[in-house]
Write a structure and sequence with these properties.
The protein has 397 residues and is mainly alpha-helical. Helix content is 78%, strand content 0%.
Length: 397
């Protein structure tokens, strides 16, 4: 595996810390800025909206830029908005910085995924994607719990400063390690028109996979965004257990990405189907047993493993089905991933606001997984293998 692929994972670690760290900071932000817990949760949704909008827009805007230049520009904007967010006393300004930071993060993600899979042969594309996504899981293991500790000791603003500082080594590593060639012409290939790329992405093979990915991630982020109040107000754990739980979730997520990266290239449909089925049962189990701190702490890492393992397999699936969309394949994966991250916290916030209790977001996660399984099963049943098509594991998603 080229060293540059691991550099991309390092940069994604810094950005992933920012994307997920609010799960351990919501109460502090709400109290400091004088807003409700649901309003604080919308900061996660604002980031996700920026990712949804930014992935295709930034990918297209930087379509003719050298990869290194695009990655460095996105990282520089990301650092700047976190400094502003750490300083502002305004909820509105903080909300805006989350959106702009997400635009930069989305652009980086789209370029990073395409860059990583372009650097390796077909048999390693799943592992390359797993290394990039693995940066997010390392963020869950190290960055997010560290952010929760910083927030508890020195306030939530210290976590924003930490993200900005950690991003600087990633900037230098990208500067030194990533080739500067254009994404469409690095290997001498003729550029693909935007119209042709969009035709691939809107075709019947990709639409159900992208919808399934959005639903799976919606289930993940619905509960993850409100994990801190779930554990402290429903499971009865002290605030000091929140970083531990976040680290457990991240450790499970890292294991899931590692396993998915190893087996997805050979058994993509089996990995996705198994992960989705287990997630449906897992979220339902957490909704029923969240009152037990022991069972909650057991289920958290298991659900992290299943959620990110399945998500990685779905990303790899999209990239393998869209070789005719070298610029927008990574962007479409990012958009679907974060569309779920937008809808999930919003739906969880609605359930909380309606007075259904702190377990309500977990119940919503289970329902979203039921919808994901339905979409995947309906698609698999309605489709038949076509002559000449490549068959993967004897079935199709």
């Amino acid at each position: 595996m080229p060293f540059a692929v691991y550099v991309l994972g390092l940069a994604v670690f810094a950005q992933g810390t920012s994307e997920f760290m609010l799960s351990g900071l919501l109460s502090g932000i709400a109290a400091d800025l004088g807003v409700s817990l649901s309003a604080a949760g919308l900061l996660t949704s604002a980031f996700a909206v920026g990712m949804v909008v930014g992935a295709p827009v930034m990918a297209l805007a930087g379509r003719t830029w050298p990869r290194r230049r695009a990655l460095l520009l996105f990282l520089a904007v990301f650092v700047a908005v976190h400094a502003v967010g750490a300083l502002t006393p305004s909820y509105g300004v903080l909300l805006a910085t989350r959106f702009v930071g997400a635009l930069a993060n989305a652009g980086f993600w789209a370029v990073a995924l395409s860059t990583a899979v372009a650097m390796v042969p077909d048999r390693l594309k799943g592992r390359a994607a797993a290394v990039v996504v693995g940066g997010v899981t390392v963020a869950c293991v190290v960055g997010v719990p560290a952010g929760a500790v910083l927030g508890e000791r020195w306030g939530w603003r210290s976590a924003f400063w930490a993200v900005a500082i950690v991003s600087l080594p990633a900037f230098l590593a990208v500067l030194r390690s990533i080739p500067g060639g254009r994404s469409a012409t690095d290997a001498g290939a003729a550029p693909v028109s935007v119209r042709d790329e969009l035709r691939v992405l809107t075709g019947p093979r990709l639409r159900p996979v992208l919808l399934t990915m959005a639903l799976v991630q919606g289930a993940t982020f619905c509960t993850f965004s409100y994990l801190e109040p779930l554990l402290t107000r429903e499971s009865g754990l002290g605030a000091g257990w929140v970083p531990v739980a976040l680290a457990l979730f991240g450790a499970g997520a890292f294991a899931g990405v590692t396993v998915a990266g190893r087996y997805t290239d050979a058994h993509p449909v089996a990995v996705v189907a198994t992960g989705m089925s287990a997630l449906t049962v897992g979220w339902a189990a957490l909704a029923l047993t969240a009152g037990s701190p022991v069972l909650a702490l057991v289920l958290v890492p298991l659900l992290g493993l299943l959620a990110f393992g399945t998500g990685t397999a779905l990303i790899t699936r999209v990239l393998s089905l869209a070789p005719g969309a070298p610029t927008l394949a990574g962007a479409s994966s990012t958009t679907a991933f974060n569309l779920g991250a937008t809808v999930g916290p919003w739906a969880g916030g609605l359930a909380l606001g309606a007075g259904f209790g702190y377990r309500a977001p977990v119940g919503v996660s289970a329902l979203l997984m039921v919808a994901a399984v339905f979409v995947a099963a309906t698609t698999a049943k309605s489709r038949r293998p076509r002559a000449g098509e490549r068959r993967l594991s004897g079935t199709r998603l």
